Every structure is written in structure tokens, then in C-alpha cells.
Amino acid sequence: MYEVEQKLWWYQTLHGKVLKQINKRFKTFNPDLKILDAACGTGGLLSFLKEKGYRDTTGFDYSQHAIDFSLERNLSVSFGDLKNVEAFKPEETFDVIICNDALYFLNDQEIIRALQNFRKKLKPGGIILINIHAFEAFSGTHDIAVGSSRRFEFKDFAAYAHSSGLIVEYKTYWPFALSLPIWLVRSWQRYQIKKKHMNHAGPDSDVSYPGDLVNGLLRSVMRMEENILSTAPFGSSLFMVLR
Known about the structure:
By secondary structure, the protein is of the alpha/beta class. It is about 40% helix and about 20% strand. The chain has a seven-stranded mixed sheet with strand order 3-2-1-4-5-7-6, sandwiched between helices.
């Protein structure tokens, strides 16, 4: 992920969605917005936001390996646990809190508690941005590789938000236009695992760079989707804005 998250079409699209919602909320660019990336991984999103001019960015992750990669990028990242969000910089609040593709490590009550603690750390007028993988039909080797045991639908997060005192201001599934090919690939992966043609104990993630031509084509498809659809009813990921 460290090697591809600056150039792969999927990460570029997700990072663009994050930036778009920050711009939409705060209208005028403010380089001093306090931004927290909770479970930031190897720091791809924080690097992207720094490149866009945001100076007060920080993150935490549970994996020391991921933290080491983030530190190589000269990012402000340290240890933190989604099960104990309140322990990370307990006196600080943030304008934007982001949590991408990490809450699947938690059970329902732990997700609610994490969201409650995000809300406590949010400044007035701030937003929480969440991306999570969606619909069991899209499960495949990537889920196993990253330790995910389930996927979500919006109704799950509608309930979590309600229990946490949050409102879901915007939501969309994505990538809608690529749903069929993604489903076909993941269905084939599940078949291979079921027939024991693939090592289900430790398969590699299918997150890899497909080459400039294919990557550019897929990125163009996503730009077209975003220009045509403000929200989509189906896709392998769910992106939300909460306040």
C-alpha cells in the first residue's frame, strides 16, 4: 500500500473525495485547519493533504510498522488505538477527523464508542469523514489480507451514528461504474479460495498498480462518475460525512 497509495486510481479517488468534502465544509482554504487521520496507515492521505497546503495534520495508527512508514514521509504520526481514541492527544480537538477503511477491526459497540470519542474530539462546525468497505458480495482476498471479517451497508452506520449522537450529512457508495468488474474478480477469488486453489491462510491483497495505461483509464472512469453522480446506490466502498 505504501508503494501505490500516491498513484493508484483507487487511492487518488478516495483522497479526492476527502479533499472535496473539506473544501465544501470550510469554503475558504485555511491551511491551519486541525486535521486528524485516525488509523492513518502508512500516511498516504496525510501526505496528500500536506501537498495541498494543510499544515496542522496528525495521525495515529496501531501498527508500529505503519507508523515507521509514515515517519519516513516526515509526518506527525504516533501510536493510537481506535478502541481507545480518547487517549490520543486528550486535550486536543480537531476541525476534521478522518477514518478510512479501519473500523472493520471493531465490533458494533466498539465502533459506536469510537464514533462517540470522535464526536468529543470534534470542534464546533467540524466534520468526520469515514470510508469503509461495503457489501459482502465484494469480499475477496484483500479482506483476508488486511484482517477484515465483514463488510458494511449504510443501514449499519445509520444506526451507529444515531447511537453516537452524530448525523450522516452525506453518503455514497463507490465505485459504482466499476461494480460489475470488481464483483467478477472478487467472485473468482472466493471460488478459488473455496476450491483451495488459493492459500486462504495468507493471500496477498489485490491492491496493486496495474500500469499507467490501465490506471489512467480507471481514474478517468472515476472522474466521469463523480461528474455525473453526486451519490450512488451501490459499490464496493461506502463514503460518509458525519457531523
